[in-house]
């Protein structure tokens, strides 16, 4: 349980994180999600590789896809936790009570992300011991420093995507359309398929999509291969700018939606 602190914002954040972790690890949801995520890593990697046989002939191809799918898992875990949590809170009038307090709704939403990060780490650990050896992927990062930076930026990006998704989850009765777009389409246009093997139209989208660069950094650190033709310093700058834009827009929109919901009813 978080300790008492004189900082009210920190107290709220710690309390929200602790509550989210307790709820997320109650029952079998966490176990099911971790196991299904590992299966997804294997299934999606093989599906993409089979669609493009040249990948199977490249020793770095399957490795690049496998590490890209990890970011898909990051996003999937967060949407799973956030979607189910907001749905429970809407049914139980908990969200209505939270909106009635002074807790910024975006803090309440982002406080659920550490639990999802734990799920993703567990999935990555299991995949490194099981799926990666099956696919011939080296689970040891080629450049640990770049890999860690890319992993942290990718997790931060995925949390921003989940924050954006929360808008749909709060106002839509069945936000499955938003779930599918953010869970499947967004990772594809953001570099889940390595730039080298992507169709030309995807390459053009990835080049102007700042969300592609955290994934490229993670993959580059994991494999030691440069898939996108971009300078490392520019890659970091574009990643930070893209993440900042996501959070600025998402926080502004969630605050707007929260004010609207307070005036009406959930």
Instruction: From the alpha carbons, calculate the radius of gyration and give it in angstroms.
Output: 19 Å
Annotation, overall tally of beta strands: 0
Q: Would you tell me the structural class of the helices and strands?
A: mainly alpha
Strand content: under 5%
What is the count of structural domains?
1
Q: Tell me, briefly, the overall form.
A: globular
N-to-C terminal Cα separation, in Å?
A: 30 Å
- The proportion of residues forming helix, as a percent range, comes to over 70%
**What kind of sheet is the major sheet?**
none
Q: Count of DSSP helices?
A: 13
Order of helices and strands: HHHHHHHHHHHHH
Low-pLDDT segments: none
Average pLDDT confidence is 84
What does this structure look like?
The protein is mostly helical and 266 residues long. It has 13 helices and no strands. It has one domain. Helices cover 77% and strands 0% of the residues. The protein starts with 7 loop residues before the first helix and ends with a helix. The mean pLDDT is 84.
């Amino acid at each position: 349980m978080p300790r008492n602190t004189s900082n009210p914002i920190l107290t709220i954040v710690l309390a929200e994180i602790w509550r989210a972790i307790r709820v997320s690890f109650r029952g079998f949801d966490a176990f099911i999600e971790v196991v299904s995520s590992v299966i997804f890593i294997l299934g999606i990697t093989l599906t993409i590789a089979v669609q493009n046989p040249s990948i199977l002939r490249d020793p770095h191809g399957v490795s690049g896809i496998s590490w890209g799918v990890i970011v898909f898992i990051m996003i999937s875990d967060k949407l799973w936790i956030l979607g189910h949590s907001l749905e429970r809170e809407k049914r139980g009038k908990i969200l209505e009570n939270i909106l009635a307090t002074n807790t910024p709704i975006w803090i309440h939403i982002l406080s659920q992300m550490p639990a999802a990060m734990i799920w993703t780490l567990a999935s990555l650990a299991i995949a490194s011991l099981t799926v990666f050896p099956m696919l011939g992927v080296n689970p040891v990062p080629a450049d640990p420093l770049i890999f860690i930076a890319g992993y942290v930026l990718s997790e931060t990006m995925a949390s921003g995507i989940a924050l954006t998704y929360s808008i749909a989850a709060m106002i839509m009765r069945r936000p499955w359309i938003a779930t599918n777009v953010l869970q499947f389409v967004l990772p594809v246009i953001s570099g889940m398929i390595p730039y080298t093997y992507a169709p030309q139209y995807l390459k053009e989208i990835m080049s102007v999509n700042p969300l592609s660069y955290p994934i490229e950094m993670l993959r580059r650190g994991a494999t030691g291969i440069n898939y996108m033709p971009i300078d490392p310093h520019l890659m970091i700058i574009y990643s930070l700018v893209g993440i900042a834009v996501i959070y600025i827009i998402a926080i502004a929109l969630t605050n707007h939606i929260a004010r609207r919901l307070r005036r009406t009813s959930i």
